[in-house]
Specification:
Blueprint: H1 3-12, H2 22-33, H3 43-69, H4 72-77, H5 82-96, E1 104-115, E2 118-131, E3 134-142, E4 144-148, E5 151-159, E6 167-173, E7 192-202, E8 205-216, E9 219-230, H6 236-241, H7 245-248, H8 253-256, E10 270-274, E11 277-281, H9 319-325, E12 331-334, E13 341-344, E14 348-352, E15 364-367, E16 372-380, H10 383-403
Antiparallel strand pairs: 1-2, 1-16, 2-3, 4-5, 5-6, 7-8, 8-9, 10-11, 12-13, 13-14, 14-15
């Protein structure tokens, strides 16, 4: 058929035969009879996969043989000994420590006195922070200025209105207007004297010794009780409303530790300083505790006080190193950033930037009054907190000085 005949057929209409003719059908059937023929890979691809699998098996066998053939001495050489690794990690950590003094600290002190057989205490807080890379006293104020989360509370002993020698521990928020703290007149029974003395202040807790002296039929009877309370519970309004507030809001040891273990469920306990750390003390007989100095002699409870009670870390210096700085040292505290140590003696507290070579020439001594002891040491290490503390206490302590 030539082109002329084809065009004539197209012009007349559809093709006479289907496009799917016998010839095409035979070709498709042939393909269906051998469907995998076109999928077969070339020989070099098939041999390449087999070779790779064989080499992998050989490598695993050689590796296992080599590992088992190592002697213990040879295998030890391939890893850092645990002691050396620990030392290396410690050295790495020390490289991160900034030796320039940058921490701020609030030191709370209690001064004790006795008059007519009645013990009483006064309190002061000293704010220390670095200024021009040197440790400097920013200011000093009456009472214990205690940081709690992002706020500060001022804790102080309030005398009774009639001057009978009674003292009550009360607390107010430092950023609120200071209210006049005073005891109600009706509480001042001349036959009874009651004093409260602060043993410890830190985080949200305070530890208090409450001593009551009563005259019964001409005979004086003395009773002491130990309480651990949250500072926020000791506001003036609360204390004036409830004469037994310390007892009703007291934390047992298990409650303070947030531990349900009944072995630590001690109701009457105190927080005191022993062997350069804060510990829990339990009285054998409360009536026998007639002075704050006797708290130290009470039995120590074998529990570790948790971070919600005390934040103090272990000393970053050995006691030998502390003694090399102050031969008369009886206690010491170090910043969590390990840039400053506060060393306590019987007559003073001296702060050293101990990581500096000229630490001796940059030390800051603080004179202690007679019968004055530490009840609080709280550090700020981050720059924003240090700056905030300096601004706040520069203002607050200046105002306190002007008021006095």
């Amino acid at each position: 058929m030539d082109d002329k005949d084809l065009f004539e057929q197209l012009a007349r209409g559809p093709l006479k035969h289907n496009g799917f003719d016998d010839n095409l059908r035979r070709k498709i059937n042939d393909q269906l009879d051998s469907p995998h023929r076109s999928l077969r890979r070339p020989w070099f691809v098939r041999w390449g996969a087999i070779s790779a699998s064989f080499l992998l098996i050989v490598a695993v066998v050689v590796a296992i043989w080599s590992w088992e053939s190592f002697s213990p001495e040879e295998s030890d050489k391939l890893s850092i000994p645990s002691e050396q690794a620990s030392t290396s990690a410690q050295a790495s950590e020390e490289l991160k420590i900034n030796p320039i003094p940058h921490s701020a600290v609030l030191i709370g002190l209690r001064a004790d006195s006795t008059q007519d057989g009645v013990s009483s205490s006064s309190y002061r807080t000293i704010m220390v922070a670095p200024q021009n890379e040197e440790i400097t006293i920013i200011g000093e104020g009456e009472g214990i200025w205690m940081p709690v989360n992002t706020n500060f509370w001022r804790v102080d002993a309030v005398p009774d209105a009639l001057g009978q020698g009674n003292q009550t521990i009360m607390a107010t928020r430092a950023d609120k207007k200071q209210v006049q703290l005073e005891q109600p007149v009706e509480k001042n029974d001349t036959s009874m004297k009651q004093t409260e003395q602060l043993l410890y202040a830190g985080n949200q807790f305070v530890s208090i010794l409450q001593t009551t002296k009563m005259n019964v039929k001409g005979q004086e009877i003395e009773q002491s009780q130990l309480w651990v309370n949250e500072v926020k519970d000791l506001g003036p309004a609360e204390r004036l409303k409830d004469a037994d507030l310390l007892a009703t809001t007291n934390f047992s040891l298990s409650e303070a530790l947030t531990d349900s273990n009944t072995l630590t469920d001690v109701d009457q306990w105190a927080i005191a300083r022993e062997n350069r750390k804060w510990v829990a003390k339990q009285p054998v007989k409360l009536a026998s505790v007639t002075n704050v100095s006797e708290i130290q002699d009470l039995p120590t409870i074998s529990v570790e006080l948790t971070k919600n009670i005390v934040k103090d870390e272990e000393l970053a210096l050995s006691w030998k190193e502390v003694k090399s700085l102050e031969s008369n040292a009886v206690d010491a505290y170090t910043s969590q950033d390990e840039d400053i140590v506060a060393i306590v003696t019987d007559s003073n507290i001296t702060l050293y930037p101990y990581r500096l070579e000229d630490a001796e020439s940059k030390k800051l001594p603080i004179q202690l009054a007679p019968n004055e002891s530490v009840v609080m040491v709280q550090w700020a290490t981050q720059a924003n907190y240090v700056d905030s503390w300096v601004k706040l206490f520069s203002k607050w302590f200046a105002n306190s000085a002007n008021e006095s």
